[in-house]
Write a structure and sequence with these properties.
The chain has about 130 residues and is of the alpha+beta class. The protein is built from 6 helices and 3 strands; from the N terminus they run E-E-H-H-E-H-H-H-H. Strand 1 and strand 2 form a beta hairpin.
Length: about 130
């Protein structure tokens, strides 16, 4: 996986936002970006892309610090890993296994202004 793909759509129907996974990833095209307007794509979709390693602020030199924070700070929101089209190439899964997968549906890249999420979720941005 090189270019960003859409992993799922963020559902905001009561409570905290949750990821509704797509059966298969879809390339993030200019048309999809435009369809998200006036929101940014990250507010309505969860995107996945190849790990940028040293170019990413979460990369420690050997692993993804974000995956570590997710497992340490967030409670699981599902009992079994959801169907996920990127699991075979997912760095979070590779490093943290099921523990990352059962927390993944609550991870939202961009929040709407004033959106209610847990303090633990907000702490991931730090």
């Amino acid at each position: 996986m090189r270019d960003p793909v859409v992993l799922g759509v963020i559902e905001r129907t009561g409570g905290e936002p949750r990821l509704a996974y797509l059966d298969q990833t879809v390339p993030l095209t200019e048309d999809l970006k435009a369809a998200a307007a006036p929101a940014s794509p990250g507010q309505v979709m969860r995107l996945a892309a190849k790990c940028e390693t040293a170019a990413c602020k979460h990369y420690t030199g050997s692993s993804c610090a974000l995956a570590t924070k997710i497992v340490a700070r967030l409670d699981p929101v599902v009992d079994v890993p959801p169907p996920c089209s990127i699991r075979p190439s997912c760095r979070w899964y590779d490093e943290r296994g099921k523990a990352a997968c059962v927390r993944c549906p609550q991870v939202v890249t961009e929040l709407h202004q004033g959106e209610a999420v847990s303090a633990a979720m907000r702490s991931l941005a730090e």
